[in-house]
Amino acid sequence: MDKRTSVAEAVAELRDGMTIGIGGWGSRRKPMAVVREIVRTPLRDLTVVSYGGPDVGLLCAAGKVRRLVYGFVSLDSIPLEPHFRKARQAGAFEARELDEGMLQWGLYAAALRLPFLPTRAGLGSDVLRINPQLRTVRSPYDDGEELVAVPALPLDAAFVHLNRADAKGNAQFLGPDLYFDDLYLMAAQRRFVSCERIVDTSDLAKSGSFHTLRIQRHMVDGVIEAPGGAHFTECPPDYGRDEAFQRRYADAAKDDVAWADFRARFLDVDEPEYQSAVRALREAKR
Amino acid sequence: MSGFTRAEVCAVAVAEAFRGDGEILASSFGTVPAIGARLAKRTFEPDLLMTDGIAFLVANPAPVSGPATEEPVVEGWLPFRAVFDLLWSGRRHVVMVASQIDRFGNHNFACIGDHARPKAQLLGMRGAPGNTISHRTSYWVPNHSPQTFVPKVDCVSGVGTDRAAALGPQASRFHDLRRVISNLGVFDFATPDRSMRLVSVHPGVTVEEVVAATGFPLAVPASVPETRPPTAEELRLIREAIDPEGAREREVRA
Please, what CATH class does the domain formed by A4-114+153-274 belong to? Predict the structure, then answer.
């Protein structure tokens, strides 16, 4: 089955109030072309689930987020995401902050169609106080241990960005870490992979070892070719993080004028215009 | 100045926190903890495992400042999923930075003020809840003051000894709060009520200074030793191999 589609078509499936999961980690291999498209739409009141980076920052700055389920929001080389910080301090959305490992557990439970998975993480900390919906569960075995029951985090839609994919939805990570991209897809109703390049199925095994073929077509509904689609986050080995651009983005959190300028130049434009604006900046530096 | 800096004493104090850990993952946040972990590995705890901060276990962790002098020797692949497995399995000792810490070692680097609408959003919970309930934990506070050593933290990201005790012996059996190292001294929780105790003051610091900079009653033994100074070999390693550009001196001003 040919599952090729476009960023616009994939995002057109989203509705106000949906729960969407975004793969990657911090400022690493984020489906940014998709995030930029969401920013351009009138979508609102989203629940966003993410090991957050600039995906979360951009969606917060654009006022798209009603609730955020997250383990952290960081730009890696800038430890705290400035747009996220600003939105948090303004009380702009409901913060469902979890321990990093608990977030994995919620996605994994949803992927396996379980109501919850147990863990010790969270016990004794304020994670349970700030998330009053969380419950504990007692082991039915002789130990009788009380554990946190991390509820499943089912997603209406999930977006991940990989290095390579075929038209059927098999996809490949060529960098050092898959992160939790497979779990986001398995936890979601509608599942989209954007990638740097669509290749023939027979070419996948030539690009990297079989260990890299962790996203399989049964996990995927739509495949989007989006070269540079993770920019300005890193997408090794295709490209590293654009640190200069990331600083420019971070600086845009300073005030409304800076944000309006950033938005006009880089967000109120379509993806080809964005990519050429980025290229122009890079060439101006040389 | 007596031949070593406060930052160097702090790095050695962090290294000492790893003494006896053996073959577990040493994780560190902040410059001085990164130096301390490398120092321990290169001297008295050679079996410690360390990562490159990306996805690999490396036998020869890179210096914390200056160019890498050797090719990394990769001894294992540790993507984030495997990190979570490892830390819940308990084979790890983490040193985290504390923005606030209280008398029982409850730790906050999540936010200042009410979590629903914080005055200041800090790093967030990150992995602190799971870390502290699962494995050995120590803390680093580069700026010891009544604003960092507080009567009550605004948000508990890392679990302290009182909250662990309240969970009961079963749920808290892997809770293992070791040391707190600040720019003024070294602390532990070896008191009957598991509250914070002054273990040693860094050379040049008095007990009175530490007490005055601490926003809660600190257990102070009758006789408080000085934190041990770096050996000549430790100083050479710190200055030549681990932190040749002196990043440590920007983190600790004393």
Answer: alpha beta
